[in-house]
User: Which sequence fits this backbone?
């Protein structure tokens, strides 16, 4: 699975993406969320995990970072403070809804008997993004 917990950063895909976050422009963040929210194809787990990590960036921009927000996100938000728009927040909420309802990541948590905990974590992130 490449993951060790239900948290947004408790997987290899998010960790790998965070390692390169400094090179991601605000438009790149938007593109990740658009691809997640609007792509009609089956959403594979790696893409879903990156979308969740990208939504964590939006939550941090929105003033509601994760309790143990990675330093890469803190630095990115300092460099891009104006990236948070109502449209970006709405897009992140839609992307998270897609991940939660129809993705390989959801299916993997269902198989691992961790679906309820994972859904709570995703819903918490949606609330932090949308508040």
Assistant:
């Amino acid at each position: 699975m490449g993951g060790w917990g239900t948290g947004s950063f408790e997987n290899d895909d998010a960790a790998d993406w965070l390692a390169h976050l400094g090179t991601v422009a605000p438009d790149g963040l938007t593109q990740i969320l658009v691809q997640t929210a609007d792509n009609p194809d089956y959403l594979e787990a790696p893409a879903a995990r990156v979308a969740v990590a990208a939504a964590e960036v939006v939550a941090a921009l929105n003033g509601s970072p994760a309790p143990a927000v990675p330093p890469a996100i803190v630095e990115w938000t300092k460099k891009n403070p104006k990236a948070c728009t109502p449209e970006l927040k709405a897009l992140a909420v839609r992307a998270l809804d897609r991940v939660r309802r129809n993705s390989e990541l959801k299916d993997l948590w269902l198989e691992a008997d961790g679906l309820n905990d994972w859904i709570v974590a995703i819903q918490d992130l949606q609330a932090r993004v949308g508040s």
